[in-house]
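>> Question from a student workshop board

For tomorrow's exercise we were told to take the sequence and the ligand below, predict the bound structure, and bring the output to class. My setup keeps failing. Could a helper post the expected result so I can at least see what it should look like? The ligand is NAP.
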Amino acid sequence: MTAATMRALQATAFSIDSLALAEHPVPVPRRGEILVRIRAASLNYRDLAILAQAYIPTLPLPYVPASDACGQVVAVGEDVTRFAVGDRAIPLYTQGWHDGKPTPEQRTRRTLGAPLSGVLQEYVAVPAEDAVTVPPHLSDAEAATLPIAALTAWSTLQEGDVKTGDTVLVQGTGGVALFALQFAKLAGAQVIVISSSDEKLARAKALGADVGINYRATPDWHVAVKEATGGRGVDIIVETVGSTLDKSLAAVAFGGFIGVIGFVAGYEAKIPLRAVIGPMIRVQGIATGSRTRFEAMNRAITLHGLKPVIDSTFALADAADAFRRLEKGAHFGKIVIDI
Ligand SMILES: NC(=O)c1ccc[n+]([C@@H]2O[C@H](COP(=O)([O-])OP(=O)(O)OC[C@H]3O[C@@H](n4cnc5c(N)ncnc54)[C@H](OP(=O)(O)O)[C@@H]3O)[C@@H](O)[C@H]2O)c1
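>> Workshop helper replied:
Here is what the output should look like for this input. Compare the format with yours to find the bug.
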């Protein structure tokens, strides 16, 4: 009997132009696994960095990119009780990380979309323990935005102990930033957003942002942030930019929290240590979150009927255009691939 095949989008080189459809065998779920027919996937900055060979430079080629997806369970292996055929499921980005902290092995070797095979394909098989159910009010496309961007924003605010009345600074209007904006508003916080675009700032305000600062027009945005808080500074910073950590330290309140998430403006930052020590700032690296956190986040999303912000949707065959849009930074929220 010949194995069933499926469409998969693979990169044969480290370049967007190398992305092309290929025929791959449909995986067969083993004991404890579910086979998920993927309906939608979403892109993250990480996917772009990997494709540019800036993130996992020794990744063997070809590979199937992207980590975040939602689909329907179409078959289950022996001993699966967590899901039944017909259920919708979202695979965990960090396979095996269920609670607490991940092991270094899980963090570096068990992530979907490199080094594990990604989700820009019609089927994936994952352990039933390594997927979560879907908030019922979300479409497949909306649910596909959650595993990295939403969970990282959620984890950052949890680690920063967000409270009603806090002020949260969100950098940019990409995937993580807009989820952070939405979750911070749910928590009763004031939100300041910085962006390169006045038009995007207006859209962020329509989503609930209280203050918008254009970081192109106001390169000293940390001064403007301080002023917007009456000189007090912000309680939590969702640091997706990375190299601006010095400015974030100048904008954070005494005893505040900086969740260091990303590197869109570079991997290096030079910081004055006195800005950390005296004001007792917590600076903490954030790497997505566990299954337990994902499930708690989904309960909050369901309770509040929260809808992720989808920028645009592309067909699988046009995924290269989706990567180009991400690369240009033209997007507001999440870019989705319909599979
Ligand atoms: N540690 C983790 O677990 C984790 C998880 C998710 C993401 N990340 C990282 O976090 C970063 C953001 O990820 P993402 O998926 O949200 O990316 P994204 O959707 O591409 O958004 C990036 C946004 O950053 C803004 N930006 C670019 N340069 C900036 C600058 N100099 N100052 C302020 N904002 C700037 C842009 O917003 P405007 O267009 O509004 O200017 C852009 O839309 C990436 O480095 C990613 O790798 C890490």
